[in-house]
Amino acid sequence: MSILEVEDLSISFKQYTGGLKQKHHHVITDLTVTLEAGEILAVVGASGSGKSLLAHAILGILPSNAGMSGTIKYAGDELTAARQRAVRGKEIVLVPQSVNYLDPLMRVGAQVRTSVKQGDAIRAQRKVFQRYHLKSDVENMYPFQLSGGMARRTLLSTAMVSEANVIIADEPTPGMDPAVIVEALHHFRELADNGCAVMLITHDIESALKIADKIAVFYAGTTVEVAPVDDFFGNGEALRHPYSKALWRALPQNDFIPIRGSQPDPSALPSGCLFAPRCEKATLECGQARPEMRNLRNGMVRCIHAT
User: Fold this and answer.
1) Can you tell me the distance from the alpha carbon of 301 to that of 215, in angstroms, rounded to the nearest whole number?
2) Average pLDDT over residues 77-83
3) Are 50 and 218 in contact (CB under 8 A)?
4) Domain for residue 142, yes or no?
5) Residue 213: which of 196, 234, 195, 227 has the closest Cα?
6) Rounded to whole angstroms, how far apart are CA atoms 122 and 63?
7) Domain count, the chain
8) Per-residue confidence at 25, pLDDT binned at 50, 70, 90?
9) Looking at residue 16, which CATH number applies to its domain?
């Protein structure tokens, strides 16, 4: 059962370039992705591909100059602004990329306890701090007293004790000790195995493959492929989209072959397939219209040539 459904999501930002002249940056275009209960979906892609914006759109925390179209559904019903406010931080929680989300005027232990919905909040907070190697005195500290890694572990702790139905973790592990990273990833897997849905936004494909069920590959603000983790092996021959294959082969542990060119600027997107200017398999047809997402070999792909 899909607990979170994003369909044809488009997001643009209005910018004044001089006087009353406006410029629109289309940062997400026709993005479609679903998340099922008990599943970990890893979202990967280059910087600027729309991963964090997707998280903010789901939570309803986009900036005021953002325009949005498409539909987002949670548990079968549309996520209106009112419903986003009702479920945010309760049924759907975010592990943000920035540690600035911590309240600077509140001790971190107390902040974590506010997310505990039932049972002994102090006990739950201390248990999760111990799991993430945070010493007992940390609970009495303020955010400015924490290192970057400690702050990230605190944010992670807040989500882990929430008993939320959906956890969206946006690059949750940078700056952490390797042992803590492993523990955090295992914790995500435990939560998913108990019915929670986890969206893991990350640059670290290798770590994602250890715990995820599916990988969604983003490019220039849209989903180009959703594939089972088992398809990421060898030279990427089981993958469907040329960008997914190129991204996989560009990893240092694989062929380390760079992808020629660069991701298009949001204010100057190609009229057809967004990857066509960099794709070795592109034809004239690729430049005429943007391909639709379609089912293929137990996955989904946005490419007319994929087989």
Assistant:
1) 12
2) 96
3) yes
4) no
5) 227
6) 34
7) 1
8) confident
9) 3.40.50.300
